Amino acid sequence: MEQYAKDLYKSLEIASNDSLRATIYFNLVTYWTPKDSLKTFEYLEKGHGMAHNSLYLKGLYHAKKGYYYYSKGNLEESKKHYLTADSFLNKISGNVDSYKIQSDIWNNIAVIHQIEDEDEKFVDITLNKAIPFAEKAKDNSRLATLNISLGIGFMNLEQYEKAIVYLLNAEKLLLSQENQNHRLISMYNRIAESYVIMNQTDKAKNYIDKAREILKNNPDSDQKSIFYLIEGLYFQKNNQFNSALNSYNKALTFATGPNKTYHIYEININKVALLLDLKRFNEALQLGLFLEKDPFTDEVDTNKASVYKHISDAYIGLGKTENAYDYLKKYSDLNIEIHDQDFKEQINDLELKYDVARKEKALLLAKSSEEKAQFNLKNSKLITALALAGVVILLLTTLITLNYYRNNKRRLLQNEIIHQQKIKEKSTEAKLAVKNAVLESEEQERQRIAQDLHDSMGGMLANIRMSISQENTQNSSELLQKIDKSIVEMRRISRNLMPETLKNLGLEIALNELCESMSQKQFHIQFEAFDLSENIPFKIQLSLYRIVQESISNVIKYAQAGNVIVQISQSQNTINLTIEDDGIGFDTAKVDYGLGIKNIKNRTALINGTVEILSEKGKGTTINVECYV
């Protein structure tokens, strides 16, 4: 690391641009983080100041900041910066360095969950986030490390067979690379440990032997202590107690690294049980009493119970039954407490499930009662209407002679008003239905054209391209370029007509892709999404996608804008969409809205939403859409 830092400082002296200098500063952060916080922040801010508008460097800045807080134990702040880094790097595609950083980011987030005793989340994030980014980067070294981490994660979940699968994956990757002895020893140790726990000691010995062979040529390895601990476990399982004790003592001698204290505790927990097997009760008692005072014993109740049991057994071996009874009682009381706690957790789970079922039942009853009440209300209205009609008819019959002209005129006027209202309502419904039908027809036609372009034109162009490339004529290169441009343009038109990303990957990713595809050299679109649900009905997703597409098209055509912000968020059942530009704006009171704005309003109405258009000359335009799911 010292030589690494010297090389970085030399590179800094000859760096030709801000981008390169920022990268060097961020690499120096890695060197200074465990040594000097002031230096760390100095280089962080220097690098940040030179990042300018680079998404990669902004992502790297937050990744290094997340690493700093992670090393200081501030896991919440670390996670926040890691997620911010990922949001910047997600906007970059096809960048191997970006994929490597994202793999490291998600690996560290997974480890944070592991530290918080959330092993299931650790496994899920490693498997579905960190590993896919390492695969995109085609980085076998990272993939091997992540497979080892995943194996350890499954070991923590006591799923040892799954753990061995991922550890063996790591072995294949490591054996294909040079200078991987350190990782191979770590991996062989873990495989051997899993087989020992599963009582498959024959298989465990095979990997212990492999690790021992590598250690012969790597005597300074920090995996030495772990190796001797696992070798001791192996001997203890095979009742070779003296050999096991020898291995445990070696493990204590070679214990090193940041986890040294806990590792020594782990060795001693196994050693005290071994001393009892050897009937060396006095030594077992002294070690047990020492472990009782260790802070790690108080952290985990099962460890404390194990220590109490070992001390009790040592006292029994020494014939001190009174002392043995005291510790046996502590052990028994703590076990009852542990099991009582487990039982309470099970009861809480059952109560939660029962409460959910009860609420669902109450909801169904309420829905049934509501439907019944609505049915009764309809019947009541019908009976009331019939009764009123009878009264009116009777009254009209009685007074028809005296008030014929006056009542007839009034009745005709009332009927006319009602008739006009019904006509208006039907007209509104018809207009909405027509708009809906037109938009649905338009979407179907778009989908049909997109499919035809893809299936027919795409195949034809590809076929033509293949034929020309095989001809090897003088003009074939130019023709191939033109056809390639045609294929790209055809795909762009096809994607605009019916975005496959929206159907396959959801609204957030589709909008992000749309914004990236519509960005231009002098026209930047920033996309932000917050808390979007995956369960938004497709009709609403499509309408919101078309609203954004129409809005950006209008900005490009009329606004003369340099920047657009597209922001979409969800709070419970409410979705808010904002499209804001810094263009020339317009006077909303004087401008007649064109087809684009009308389409936006129509699509908003079809999802029972509201739309607000705010604009002033010289101050840009903002479109706010709100709807419910």
Describe this structure in words.
With 629 residues, the protein is of the alpha+beta class. The protein contains 23 helices and five strands. A five-stranded mixed beta sheet has the order 1-2-3-5-4, covered by helices on one side. The longest helix is centred in the middle third of the chain and has 151 residues, at 321-471. It is extended and about 120 Å long. The two termini are 54 Å apart. The model is unreliable at 349-354 (pLDDT under 50).
How is this structure best summarized?
It contains 23 helices and 5 strands.
Sequence of strands across the biggest β-sheet: 1-2-3-5-4
Helical percentage: over 70%
Unreliable spans are 349-354
Order of helices and strands: HHHHHHHHHHHHHHHHHHHHHEHEEHEE
C-alpha end-to-end distance: 54 Å
Choose one word for the global shape: extended
Structural class: alpha+beta
Largest sheet: 5 strands, mixed
The total count of helices amounts to: 23
Average pLDDT score: 82
Strand content: 5-15%
Count the beta strands.
5
Estimated radius of gyration? 36 Å
Write the SSE topology.
Elements lengths: L1 H13 L3 H15 L4 H13 L5 H17 L3 H15 L6 H20 L3 H19 L2 H17 L3 H16 L5 H17 L3 H17 L6 H14 L3 H14 L5 H18 L3 H12 L2 H5 L1 H17 L3 H151 L4 H22 L2 H6 L1 H12 L5 E7 L7 H22 L3 E9 L2 E8 L13 H12 L3 E6 L5 E8 L1
Parallel strand pairs: 1-2
Antiparallel strand pairs: 2-3, 3-5, 4-5
